[in-house]
Design the sequence.
C-alpha cells in the first residue's frame, strides 16, 4: 500500500458525495476566476503538508477587497518547499466546540479502528489516551448503527449531538470502505453555536494500490521529488537521500541493509534504489540512467541473485558503462544464482566483483572518501 | 518436525499458467514440494510441468490439495483467496504485490475466523528444507537444521539464510511474512509455532522499520520464548516519512523506528546484529 493524500478540496468533494456536512466552499487556481461573495470567509492554501496555518497558509477575509488581498498572498506562496497551486475559499464557521473523529488502519490488529474525542482541534497525538474513545471494526461484519451509539455514550454526547454524530460516522465508514482509504479524518469536527455538526477540515488518504477501481481519483504526486517522480514513472522504487554514494540493489530489505551498512561504515548513501524482482538487462541499464541524474561520487551495486540473475546484472552494468556513460567508480557485489558467469562477464570488462557484501561496502566507502 | 509446511503439504497453484505461477511450480517441484494441481479459468485439461490444470478450484479439489499458492494479478487476489476459503484450503500463500490493503484485511480476518492460515501478500513464502516449499525462495541456499527464521523481507532473507548455511547451520523452517502493512502472519504468530517445534532450537528474526510488530514480538519473547533469539533490523539509516520500497517500511509520526525495535528486542534478551554477516556469529555465541 502506497499512501496517497488527497487535497482538502478533493476530500471535501468526497464528503459532499456522501452527504457529510461541510462548509460551503470552492477551489480556485486563478485569482481572476474568484467569484466568492459570502463573508466572513476563509482562504486555505491547498498543499499536502501539515502546519500550513503556522506558515500563513490560512487567512480570513471580511469583504471582497480583503479576500483578493489574502488570496493573492496565499496563492503561489511556498510552504515547506511546496508551491501553493490552488486555494480553497469557504465560509467561516461560528465555532462552538471542536471534536475529533477518524477511521484508520490498526496494523497490529489488522482491523480499522475508529477514534473519537471531544477534545478536537489539536493534533490527536497531543490528546491524552484516556480521552480518546476507540472501536475496532471487524471488516468481515462491517459497520453497524450500534457502533455509533456506543461511541456516543462513551463520549457522553448530548442527545442533540448524538444523532448527527452517528449519521456522520456511518457515512465516513462507507467512504473509508468504498474508496479504499487508509485514513478518513475530521479535525476539527465543529459543533456550531446553533448546535449543528459540520466537518471543519477533511483529511483523506487513499491506498494507491486500489486506484484501479477508483478512476475518479487523480494521482497526486506532490510528495515525490523530481528524481523520485522520474523513477516512479519508469517503474523504479527510488528514494533520494542526501549523501554521495549511489546504490543499486535488489529487494527492499537488502537495499535498506546496504544503506545501513554504508552508513555504519562512514559512507553517505545518495539514494535507495531497488531493482525489484526483475531479470532484465534494460532494467539494470535504466537504474544507471537514474543514478546519472543523481550525480553520485561512486556507485555500489549489491545483488543477491534469485529471481534476478547475477549474469543479467553483469550484462546490464557493462551495457550501462557503454551507453549511459558512467564516469564515477563502480563497486559490485554479486552472490547467488549465476554468480560465476556474472563475475566472469565483469572481469572481461575490467571490473572485479566481490562475493560478499561487507568487502564491497568497505571498498566503495574508501574509494569515495578518497576523492 | 517443522512448522506450517512439511511432507504432507499438497499444493495447488492458482494462476499456474502465468509466468510466475509456471516458473515457481517448476522450482517447487525441484525442491521436492508436492504440487498436485493448478487452476487457471479456461485452461482446464492442460498441464504445466506435468501438473494438471483445472478451470476452478472446486474441480482441482479432487487432487486433495491443502495449501494454495496464489499468483494472480492484484485485482483478483480477494476472489482467489475466497475461492480457497470456500473450498476448505488450510494454508493460503499470496505472492502478489500491490494488493489493496482492505482486500488483505478482509482475507486475513475471514481466514482467522475459519481457523485457516494466510501468509503474505508480497512475501517469499515458507520453506521447510527439504520437506516442502511454498513460495519463491531460491532452492540452493538451504540446509536442513535447527534454526527457525522469520523475516519481513525477501532478498535479505536469502542473504541471511545463505550466510547461516555457509557458516554450517541449517534451517528448520524459514517464514517470509511479506512487506505490506497488513499480512496474514506476523512475528508473534510464527514465534508461537517455533516455541513448540522440537526441531527448532534457535530463532532468527529479520525485521525492518515501520509498524510495531517487532516491539510486540519482543514483548512475546520476554514472556514466552526460552529458545535463543538473534535479530537483525534494517532501516537504521532511513529518513522519517519516506517509504523504503516495502509499503510497510515507513516511519510515521515518530513510530516504527529501527532504534525503538532494537531497544525492545535487546530488553527482551535478544542479540541484535549490526550487519547481516554477524547473524551466524551471534548464533554461535548463543549455542555455546
Sequence:
Amino acid at each position: 500500500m502506497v499512501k496517497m493524500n488527497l487535497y482538502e478540496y478533493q476530500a471535501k468533494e468526497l464528503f459532499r458525495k456522501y452527504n457529510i456536512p461541510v462548509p460551503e466552499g470552492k477551489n480556485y487556481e486563478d485569482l481572476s476566476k474568484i467569484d466568492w461573495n459570502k463573508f466572513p470567509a476563509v482562504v486555505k492554501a491547498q498543499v499536502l503538508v501539515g502546519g500550513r496555518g503556522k506558515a500563513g497558509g490560512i487567512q480570513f477575509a471580511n469583504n471582497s477587497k480583503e479576500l483578493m488581498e489574502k488570496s493573492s498572498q496565499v496563492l503561489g506562496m511556498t510552504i515547506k518547499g511546496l508551491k501553493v497551486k490552488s486555494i480553497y475559499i469557504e465560509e467561516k464557521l461560528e465555532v462552538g466546540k471542536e471534536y475529533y473523529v477518524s477511521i484508520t488502519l490498526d496494523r497490529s490488529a489488522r482491523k480499522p479502528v475508529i477514534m473519537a474525542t471531544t477534545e478536537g482541534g489539536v493534533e490527536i497525538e497531543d490528546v491524552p489516551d484516556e480521552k480518546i474513545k476507540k472501536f475496532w471494526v471487524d471488516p468481515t461484519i462491517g459497520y453497524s448503527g450500534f457502533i455509533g451509539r456506543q461511541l456516543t455514550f462513551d463520549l457522553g454526547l448530548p442527545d442533540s449531538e448524538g444523532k448527527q454524530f452517528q449519521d456522520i460516522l456511518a457515512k465516513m465508514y462507507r467512504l473509508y470502505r468504498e474508496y479504499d482509504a487508509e485514513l478518513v479524518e475530521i479535525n476539527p469536527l465543529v459543533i456550531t453555536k446553533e448546535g449543528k455538526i459540520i466537518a471543519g477540515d477533511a483529511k483523506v488518504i487513499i491506498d494507491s494500490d486500489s486506484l484501479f477501481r477508483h478512476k475518479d481519483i487523480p494521482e497526486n504526486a506532490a510528495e515525490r521529488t523530481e528524481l523520485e517522480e522520474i523513477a516512479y514513472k519508469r517503474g523504479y522504487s527510488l528514494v533520494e537521500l542526501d549523501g554521495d554514494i549511489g546504490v543499486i540493489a535488489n529487494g527492499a530489505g537488502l537495499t535498506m541493509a546496504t544503506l545501513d551498512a554504508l552508513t555504519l561504515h562512514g559512507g553517505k548513501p545518495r539514494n535507495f534504489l531497488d531493482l525489484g524482482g526483475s531479470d532484465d538487462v534494460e532494467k539494470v541499464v535504466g537504474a544507471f540512467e537514474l543514478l546519472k541524474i543523481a550525480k553520485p561520487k561512486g556507485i555500489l551495486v549489491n545483488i543477491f541473485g534469485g529471481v534476478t540473475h547475477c549474469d543479467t546484472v553483469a550484462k546490464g552494468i557493462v551495457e550501462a558503462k557503454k551507453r549511459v556513460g558512467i564516469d564515477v567508480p563502480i563497486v559490485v557485489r554479486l552472490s547467488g544464482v549465476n554468480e560465476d558467469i556474472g563475475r566472469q562477464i565483469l572481469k572481461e570488462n575490467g571490473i572485479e566483483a566481490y562475493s560478499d557484501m561487507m568487502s564491497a561496502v568497505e571498498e566503495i566507502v574508501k574509494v569515495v572518501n578518497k576523492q | 518436525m517443522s512448522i506450517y509446511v512439511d511432507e504432507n503439504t499438497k499444493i495447488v497453484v492458482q494462476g499456474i499458467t502465468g509466468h510466475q505461477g509456471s516458473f515457481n511450480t517448476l522450482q517447487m517441484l525441484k525442491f521436492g514440494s508436492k504440487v498436485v494441481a493448478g487452476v487457471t479459468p479456461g485452461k482446464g485439461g492442460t498441464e504445466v510441468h506435468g501438473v494438471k490444470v483445472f478451470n476452478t478450484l472446486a474441480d482441482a479439489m479432487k487432487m486433495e490439495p491443502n495449501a494454495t499458492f496464489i499468483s494472480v494479478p492484484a485485482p483478483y487476489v480477494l476472489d482467489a483467496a475466497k475461492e480457497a476459503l470456500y473450498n476448505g484450503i488450510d494454508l493460503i500463500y499470496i505472492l502478489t504485490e500491490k494488493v489493496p490493503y482492505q482486500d488483505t484485511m478482509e482475507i486475513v480476518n475471514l481466514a482467522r475466523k475459519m481457523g485457516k492460515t494466510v501468509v503474505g501478500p508480497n512475501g517469499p513464502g515458507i520453506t521447510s528444507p527439504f520437506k516442502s516449499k511454498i513460495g519463491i525462495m531460491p532452492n540452493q541456499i538451504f540446509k536442513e537444521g535447527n534454526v527457525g527464521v522469520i523475516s519481513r523481507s525477501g532478498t535479505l532473507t536469502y542473504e541471511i539464510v545463505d550466510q547461516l548455511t555457509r557458516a554450517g547451520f541449517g534451517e528448520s523452517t524459514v517464514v517470509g511474512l511479506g512487506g505490506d502493512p497488513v499480512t496474514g502472519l506476523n512475528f508473534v504468530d510464527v514465534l508461537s509455532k517455533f516455541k513448540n517445534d522440537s526441531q527448532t532450537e534457535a530463532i532468527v528474526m529479520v525485521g525492518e522499520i515501520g509498524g510495531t510488530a517487532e516491539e510486540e514480538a519482543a514483548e512475546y519473547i520476554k514472556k514466552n520464548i526460552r529458545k535463543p533469539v538473534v535479530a537483525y533490523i534494517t532501516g537504521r539509516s532511513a529518513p522519517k516519512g519516506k517509504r523504503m520500497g516495502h509499503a510497510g517500511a515507513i516511519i510515521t509520526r515518530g513510530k516504527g523506528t529501527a532504534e525503538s525495535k532494537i531497544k525492545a528486542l535487546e530488553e527482551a534478551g535478544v542479540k541484535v546484529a549490526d550487519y547481516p554477516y554477524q547473524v551466524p556469529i551471534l548464533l554461535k555465541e548463543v549455542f555455546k
Remarks:
- Chain A touches chain B through 53 residues (CB under 8 Å).
- Chain A has three domains: 24-91, 95-213, 226-370.
- The longest strand of chain A covers residues 95-106.
